[in-house]
Amino acid sequence: GCTELESLPKRLGKQKALQELVLSGCSKLESVPTVVKDMKHLRILLLDGTRIRKIPKIKSLKCLCLSRNIAMVNLQDNLKDFYNLKCLVMKNCENLRYLPSLPKCLEYLNVYGCERLESVENPLVSDRLFLDGLEKLRSTFLFTNCHNLFQGAKDSISTYAKWKCHRLAVECYEQDKVSGAFVNTCYPGYIVPSWFDHQAVGSVLEPRLEPHWYNTMLSGIALCAVVSFHENQDPIIGSFSVKCTLQFENEDGSLRFDCDIGCLNEPGMIEADHVFIGYVTCSRLKDHHSIPIHHPTTVKMKFHLTDACKSKVVDCGFRLMYTQSRGCLLREEVAANFTKL
To answer: Where do the C-JID domain residues begin and end (predicted)?
Structure first.
């Protein structure tokens, strides 16, 4: 909150033990030291409310906040080389128009209210994603109230969510992980992406699954909900979640459980429709033996919101996620899809 601070001493970049640097609200600050080779332990850098346009490459950095930055138009292209960055927050950057490829290790991105944001790089996450090992399971990418996004940007976000769901399905199967893995993606839109092979108008979806739909290669479920905020004229106070109740039934038994698709913690007005995409593992199905694998099964899904006033789910989608032998995309195929986009 030092509103008259205009510059920082160059020797700041020599602070070897510094772990957290908070410059929030220094509204006249336009730069930080560029020589930072000695800053090997800096983990948190908060630059919200400043005018800084370029971030020095700090390899150790894990959390970066650039919210309320009115000077930044294009986020720098070398951000994908911030190999340890897990959290990037850029809320209400009113002049931001472009996002480059992001680091493969990024787990949380929030660009809420960046209303002039038009495009994001394809692929949304660095190409190294396909060359190195598996990235972390947790993934939350929020583009709430980014109303100016081009359709290509929305396609890139959706394609990333699809790849992430497939990748999680493979990892959960290979490493026998049954919890803690999820995708939470949100962006302005009114169409369920075409890769959801079961879709319905409204908040209820009732697909019929063929025999042998449940086998050892099934690792997860991808869910999508289009939420309309047009009837909600009051600001949203606090947070709300998008949830789904699933009920599986066949001639030998039934199973019912609830799961989260996504959530928002930003108070204020949300005017346009938004697409929410989430992923859940199949641990509850694996632990339940009343749903035989040999019989056709009816699934009834009810999508709903919590604490969201008059907002409602207007369209929904569902897809079973299998490992490679049942349709999971190979790395080369996903890379090709990104190239086509």
So the answer is: 188-325
